[in-house]
Amino acid sequence: MMVKNLGENDSILNQFIAEIRDQQIQKDRIRFRRNLERIGEIFAYEISKTMDYSEQEVETPLGSKKMGLPAYQPVLATILRAGLPMHNGFLNYFDNAGNAFISAYRKYHSKTDFDVHIEYTSSPSTEDKTLILTDPMLATASSVVLTYKEICKNGKPRHTHIVTIIASAKGVENLEKELAEENVTIWVGAIDEKLTKKAYIVPGLGDAGDLAFGAKLD
Q: Which domains does the chain have, with CATH numbers?
């Protein structure tokens, strides 16, 4: 398993991450969603470099040109609801991709004790496909691990890219442990060291779903 931290190198990506962290800029909900989308587009471009290409001939009004074009389209998967803007960023680039949507939630037994449950899954076949699973925040990694296993019921992917904008160090460690035998690459924009007792990333950015779509009832 490989971990690729794009935020380690200076690029415009870090500006977008800084803006989604900034509590003043966060007040502009449409800008928050657009930044998640733009970050998704950057990750999509970087992941596209790892994919297979085949030479195809393209006809223009004045002739033809052989070009290396994607040999296949991936399956894009995201966890509702926070993942939707980032998913749209990926879909802007992989516009013919298959799409999977997963509803997962935390069921609290106390203020700090909870289990993650999968409520609903809509997915095409992922057998021998490249799967790109996105979730903007990776705290404990429980949701992503459960989601990956649920999607694999629709077929074993040939390779899976798990993409998150901000991860906790513990979340990355858990992914490496839980999916050690899987053909997985982890992509992150930043890794933060701390988790609160309620499993929120510090400094993180808060609740990505609430910031994108408004507060929900607990």
A: 2-51+71-200 (3.40.50.2020)
